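Supplementary Note 2. Why include the ligand at all?

Several targets in our set were suspected to adopt different conformations when bound, so apo predictions alone were not considered sufficient. For every target with a known small-molecule partner we therefore ran a joint prediction. The input for pyridoxal-5'-phosphate is given below.
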Amino acid sequence: MDLSKRAQRMEPSATLAVVGKAKQLKREGKPVISFGAGEPDFNPPPAAIRYAKEAIDAGHTHYTQATGIPELKEAVTDYYKKRFNLSFSADQVIVGAGAKPLIYSALSCLVDPGDEVIVFSPAWVSYVEQIRLCGGEAAVVNTIPSGCMPDPEKVRQIVTHKTRGMLINSPNNPTGAVYDSETLQALVKIAEENDLWIIYDEIYERLVYGKATHENPLALVPDASERIILVNGVSKAYAMTGWRIGYAIAPKWLSTKIGAFQGHLTSNPCSIAQWAALGALREAENDVVKMRGVFEERRKTMIDLLEKMPHITFGKPDGAFYVFVNVEKTFGMNAEGKTVETDLDFCSALLSTEYVAAVPGTAFLAPGNIRLSYSNSLEEIQEGMKRLHHFLESLS
Ligand SMILES: Cc1ncc(COP(=O)(O)O)c(C=O)c1O
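The joint prediction is reproduced in token form.
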């Protein structure tokens, strides 16, 4: 018996693999510090928990509308009005079990076998796999030479008659880059010239630091409303990863189809979690502001410590909670008798010698780098950076 070709082509999530190995070592009693997390280490807002409890007591425990409860869809449109001055009708909103399945549902409605979708590397692990699951291929534009910002000229060069759309992620996982308005406008222009759609994944939009500001392409180019799909959710902004609630906003010609697709796949996202997300959107603004402030301090601590270390380089991240560090200068060096030749070797040696977990850049189509998440306490960041520093100094 054979697995389908689709399943055979699929790679498991490398981030989950590293986090899994670190967890296993922790269970064995090792003093592991993991910088592998892709989620905030905060509790969900009290309002979310209260709404969830009330939802259970009120019996909101049955199937809901496939695209989400009207109250939450309305809260999403209110949020976008307040945050970006963008007006949407509730039937453009699809609430799903996280941003991840919503991106997949949208791709499923947009990608045919043989189609190409432009992806900017370093890129979040699931984009390429999801495009492939739809029978398409990712056309990858490397942003590293242009400071982790897409170079519009390179995008123009990669467009072919097979190109159908672009997947844009800002603030970016794993680089923390926040795309500026000029870049986004240029990308929208290319989409307009070539009749492409854009999926804009802005799941980290609340986590932006210093002078950087998060830009929304639809707020920049309102005329492009028929080709832009926004994806967002409560996972990162409200530290609600396990509740699995995301939302997409699409033009009506598409939102109905994404809703139908999701209906066949999951029926609806968890009813209780939807009410919890409503609590977050309605009442947790202060929690978001507080969490962002804590992340900003951690970011500074990590960057300050990384700047003192040998053999590495990195661009200062403006958003999300990651620092993407180039470790190529360590290649050819020796870690406890083994030669480091790749980012995977680097992460493996770092974990086994110092019990520090990081995610190899290969998982983000960017070999030669590692991703460090600063979703840890300041004490853990300080201790983990001390160990990383020691590891780098011990290389011979
Ligand atoms: C860029 C990006 N998009 C989407 C997601 C998925 O978010 P959700 O938990 O809402 O599925 C993640 C999670 O790590 C992410 O990093």
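The pocket of pyridoxal-5'-phosphate is lined by residues 38, 98-100, 124, 169, 173, 201, 203, 233, 235, 241, 246 (CB under 6 Å). The chain has two domains: 5-43+287-394, 46-283. Comparable summaries for the other entries are listed in the accompanying table.
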